[in-house]
Amino acid sequence: LLRQNAAMAEEEACCLVSVSGPSGSPQANAGPWSCSGVILSRGPGLVLCQGAVFTPFLRDGPAAWAQPCSLLPDALQPCLRLLVLQPPAGIRRPTLGLNAAVVPPSPAGGLRQHKAQLLALVPCGAFQQALAQAFGQAEQWRFGGEAAEDDQRALHWFAWLRVPGLDSAGGGWTARASASCLHKGEGLLACGSPFGALCPDLFLNTLSRGVVSNLAGEENALVLTDARCLPGTEGGGAFLPSPTRPLLVAIIAASFCWKGAEWIGLTLLCSLAAILRSSTGVLDEAGVVVPPMPGRVAAVQAGSRQDPLAWAVLVECGATWGSGVLLAPRLLLTCRHVVEAGGQLCVTPTPGPGRAAAVLKGHVVFATEESSPFDVAVVELEERVPGFAALCPADTFLPGKQLGVVGFGALGRACGPSVTAGVLSAVVAVSGRPVMLQTTCAVHGGSSGGPLVSSHSGRLLGKQGISHRWGRGSHGTDTVTWALLLSPQGIVASNTRDTGAGATYPHLNFCIPITILQPPVVRYCRTGNRSAFAELNSAGEGVRAAWRLQRQPGHPSKL
C-alpha cells in the first residue's frame, strides 16, 4: 500500500504542458508542441518544465538560447496558447506535500485543462557548466532524439508557468530535496508523459525506476540515471523514495543520450535545487516566496560495509582505456583487449574515505590467449591500494536477482565510475557449471573489466569487458560484447552490437561468472606461479560455443 501511495504521489505532482501558436500561424499547423512538467506549488499555482518546447515560438529563433540571461514573455511570439493537463479528477489521491484542491471532473471524465501564462525562461548556469565538465565535445555527445540537427543549446533552459487554476487556499510546495544528498547507486523514480500530447489518455504521468548512475557539477547539478525515459518526458520529475513520501530532486532534461552513434541508455537530469538558485531573480520579481530546501539525512544501509565503487578502477594502456576490479591491494582483473596494445599501464583507483586520487603503475601478469572464450587479464600493481576491503565472491547465481554494474563506461574518467542496475536475466551452464551470465544492466564501451555486484548483498559476481567479435547468428547479426562479471557474482564481458544495423543494445550483456575466475586467482596468490591461470586457455568446446553464440554440441533433437 505504501508503494502504491508513493507512485500515486509522483503522478499527482506531474503534468503535461502544451504550447501552440495563434490560429492560422505556421506553428499552430505544426503543433501543439508539448512536454512533461512538474507542479511545484499550489500556493500560488506554479509549473516547471523544460524550455526547449518554446523553441518554435522564439522571436529570434534558436539563437536566443545562447543568451546568458532569462528570457521574458516578450521574447516569444504573441498570443500563444499554454495549457497544463492533469489526470481526470474525482478521486482524491495522495500528493507530494500538496494540499490539492477538489477540482470538479472534466466532461466525460476527461483530462483536466488549465490555462497558463509564462513567467520566464531561465538558464541554469550550474547545469550548463556540469554539461561541459562531463561531456567532451570530441566525443560527439548528443541528447534527445536521433536527429543530428536537434538543438542542444536549450538543454539547460527551463520554463516557469503561472497556472491560476492550480491555486489552492493554504496550498503548499511539492516535497523536495537537494541533489547534493544523492549517492551513486541510490534508487530514483522518474515520472513523465512519453510522446507528450500525442496520446495523454494512455501515457500521461507514467513511471520508470532506476538508480543514480553518475553525478557532476556544483552540488550535483547534473544527474545521470538509468531509469528508462522516452521523448516527451522532458520536464518531468525524478523523485527520491523516502519513508514518508517521495522527494522531488531533479527535472528530466533529456530522455536519450547518444555518444557518436551509440545509444547510451541513460537519462539526463538537472538538479531542482540548481534551477531554483538560477531562478531567484525571476521568482522574486513575480512575488513568489520559495520555502527553504528541507535537509535530508542519508540513510545508512545495514549489513555489508563494502562499497562496490571502491572495487572499480580505471585501467589505461597507451590510448586504450577500460575498467578493472581490485581483488587484492596489489592485484586486479580487467579484460585482455584493454591491455593488449602494450605500452605503459596506469591504474587509477576510485577515490574514497582514506584514499585520495592517485595513478599507480602496473604490469600484466597474465592475459588469456586470443583463442580463449574468456577475455581476461591479470594486472599486478607496483604499490598497494590503501584502504582496500576484501571482496566476497558469489558462489550461486539466481536468475531475476537484482544486480549493479560499476565501470568507467560512457563518461570515462570525467566523473568517476558509473553505476547501472538490472537483473540477472539468464545463467548459461555447460555440464552443470555456469560459464556465462546475462544481465539487463546498461553497459557501455569503457566498462570492460568492471565488477558486477549483487544489489542487496554487495557480493561480487563478475567483471565486464569486450571479449571478441562473435560469429554470425541465426538472424544474420554480428555481435560484439564488452563486459565481465565479478561479484560475489561476476565480471561483465560485453554488451551487444548489431553490426548490420549499426545498433548497440546496452541492456543485453554477457558476463564471466566469478566462479570461473576465483579459483585460479586464489592459486596464484598462494603460489605466485602464473601457470595457475592456464585453465582459462583450455576451455572445452561447449564453453567456446556458448561465447560464440552458437548452439552447444549435443545429441540431435528428435522433434
From TrEMBL:
InterPro entries: Peptidase_S1_PA, Peptidase_S1_PA_chymotrypsin, TYSND1/DEG15. It holds the Pfam family Trypsin_2. Keywords: Hydrolase, Protease. One of its GO terms (biological process) is regulation of fatty acid beta-oxidation. Coiled coil: none annotated. One of its GO terms (cellular component) is peroxisome. GO terms for molecular function: serine-type endopeptidase activity. The keyword Disulfide bond does not apply. It comes from the Eukaryota. This is TYSD1 protease. It comes from Steatornis caripensis.
